[in-house]
Amino acid sequence: MAEEVVLLDFWPSMFGMRSRIALAEKGIKYEYKEEDLWNKSALLLQMNPVHKKIPVLIHNGKPVCESLIQVQYIDEVWHDKAPLLPSDPYQKATARFWADYVDKKIYDLGNRVWKTKGEEQATAKKEFIESLKLIEKELGDKPYFGGESLGYVDVAFIPFYSWFYAYEKCGNFNIEAECPKLIAWAKRCMQKESVAKSLADQQKVYDFVLQMKKHFGIE
Amino acid sequence: MAEEVVLLDFWPSPFGMRSRIALAEKGIKYEYKEEDLRNKSALLLQMNPVHKKIPVLIHNGKPVCESLIQVQYIDEVWHDKAPLLPSDPYQKATARFWADYVDKKMYDLGSRVWKTKGEEQATAKKEFIESLKLIEKELGDKPYFGGESLGYVDIAFIPFYSWFYAYEKCGNFSIEAECPKLIAWAKRCMQKESVAKSLPDQQKVYDFILQMKKHFGIE
């Protein structure tokens, strides 16, 4: 049966980028549909009535919502190529833990860096760097979080690299100076076509963040 | 090799209850260790240095953190009995979605019901009931979210039933009046030994909430 795969997405979304990378890693052809989040399509509202958010992966007409759930789904359906999760249950649990850490900590802390200023921003920057250092420690000397090849945690986290330039400009700090190993890892990931083609241009992301700041009245 | 399983937990935690139920469903003997969250043990801090939270599942000395990650781990390691997740990738993705919904919505909305009063509480109650109705709709006419037997979503959600009495007393409303099918499902789950033995007494939970309210200065 011909597979029909559609991804409802929004170009700067780190969450959407995860699914783009996973689909590319598996070599799956799909239709990318750009959503205007200020004017959500009927399709999006129908396919994700609970959260009304992107990304939504639609496989043969059936929606899968939430980016990490999509990545696991993609890994399980197209299991014969480029495995993203380890097969060992303990290693799988560890991978899930760190992807969850990215969601729980890094996303919110990164947001606070560009959304705040003064004292609040100083605190956000400090906590953000601390969280990056923690995940950098988890990487250790491995080329990827997944070991010798790109894995679940790499896919979960690398999209944030496209936002690092925006965080740095907004927060006036240098992530590479604090976490050189992490930046080396990010550049290594960017060498892969699946990642390079999936991540938004960092300057475009910064311009987008500036627009958002204006929109929300944040200087 | 003799399996050594330890669960660091806190008796009223709905998250801890999930792992208790999963372990009981699989018939796994384990050591339950009660943590005093105001005086966390050295073991807890060593086993979950990142979040310092319970529950922590320790299997042959290796920690697994985050309750839903633990339930999936338990399901994958002890896979020959009482499967909790479906084998079909799409059904699996759907189960993960609803467990994630419980985490994203139920916990926070329920917390707001007992932590607030007046207008704020009225809003919290309304949103909480709406979220319960949504998940009740997902249950439909199935005996369990997992179909004919207890599954991942049932385990993710049933612990909150032990808190319903406390929510109802604090918010002065009846959940059964609004969501009769959900309460019928909950009572059905409570018929199972794995659930009944894992959930604390609802009166005890209410007394605990009253203590917490006093502690936080909420009337």
Question: Could you walk me through the main structural features you see in this protein, from its secondary elements to its overall organization?
Answer:
- The structure is a homodimer of 219-residue chains.
- The radius of gyration of chain A is 17 Å and the shape is globular.
- In chain A, strands 2-1-3-4 form a four-stranded mixed β-sheet.
- With 219 residues, chain A is of the alpha+beta class.
- In chain A, strand 3 and strand 4 form a beta hairpin.
- Chains A and B meet through strand 4, helix 3 and helix 4 of A and strand 4, helix 3 and helix 4 of B.
- Chain A: Keywords: Cytoplasm, Detoxification, Transferase.
- Chain A: It is found in: Cytoplasm, Cytosol.
- Chain A: This is Glutathione S-transferase.
- Chain A: It catalyses: RX + glutathione = an S-substituted glutathione + a halide anion + H(+).
Provide key terms for this protein.
homodimer, 219 residues, alpha+beta, four-stranded mixed beta sheet, 11 helices, 4 strands, globular
Q: How are the elements arranged and paired?
A:
Two copies of one chain form a homodimer.
Chain A: E1 5-9, H1 14-25, E2 31-34, H2 42-47, E3 56-59, E4 62-65, H3 67-77, H4 89-115, H5 118-139, H6 152-157, H7 161-171, H8 175-178, H9 180-190, H10 193-196, H11 202-216
Helix pairs in contact in A: 1-3, 4-5, 4-7, 7-11
